[in-house]
């Protein structure tokens, strides 16, 4: 195989989508996640909030930083429990996969990686809408150093926004 990894994973832009900012729309982000390298990683959450299975003495509290207040406004009037029961919530959870390797990844050059959890809502149109993204950083020995952050302004759009 003579193709480089960059060449073999290059995709043409989808028809009807133009401009670099198009992927910032909620429905486009969800579509690209499904079209991505591993769409089988998207699952229905077994519980909310998500809980890590990693060693708490090394990686800290297992509870996700994503709380009901972060997502409730994006559930079309449903409670989180109702959205779970009606199979409307999905998660792409890379937290436990990447967290053990972040210190080594981030020690190379100017890199800064996070372990992520993205919560999606299945809209009435049948598209996945990202409603919260949690970033977890490598464990720190510093006291009061936050290791988890939920992006609420950047990736939790207002319920009446331009997304679907």
Automatic annotation (TrEMBL):
Pfam family, one: Lipoxygenase
Keywords: Dioxygenase, Metal-binding, Oxidoreductase
Signal peptide: none
Superkingdom, taxonomy of origin: Eukaryota
Gene Ontology biological process terms in this record: lipid oxidation
A Gene Ontology molecular function term of the record: metal ion binding
InterPro entries xref list: LipOase, LipOase_C, LipOase_C_sf, LipOase_plant
Domain (Lipoxygenase): residue spans on this chain: 1-164
Coiled coil ranges: none
Keyword hit for Transferase: no
Protein's name according to its UniProt entry: Lipoxygenase domain-containing protein
């Amino acid at each position: 195989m003579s193709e480089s990894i960059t060449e073999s994973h290059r995709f043409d832009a989808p028809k009807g989508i133009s401009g670099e900012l198009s992927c910032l729309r909620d429905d486009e982000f969800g579509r690209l996640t499904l079209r991505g390298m591993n769409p089988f990683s998207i699952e229905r959450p077994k519980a909310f909030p998500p809980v890590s299975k990693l060693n708490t003495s090394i990686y800290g509290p297992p509870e996700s930083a994503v709380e009901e207040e972060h997502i409730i406004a994006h559930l079309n009037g449903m409670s989180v429990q109702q959205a779970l029961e009606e199979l409307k919530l999905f998660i792409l959870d890379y937290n436990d996969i990447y967290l053990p390797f972040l210190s080594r990844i981030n020690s190379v050059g100017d890199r800064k990686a996070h372990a992520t959890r993205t919560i999606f809502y299945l809209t009435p149109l049948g598209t996945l809408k990202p409603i919260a993204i949690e970033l977890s950083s490598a464990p720190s020995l510093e006291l009061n150093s936050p290791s988890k952050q939920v992006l609420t302004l950047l990736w939790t759009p207002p319920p009446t926004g331009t997304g679907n």
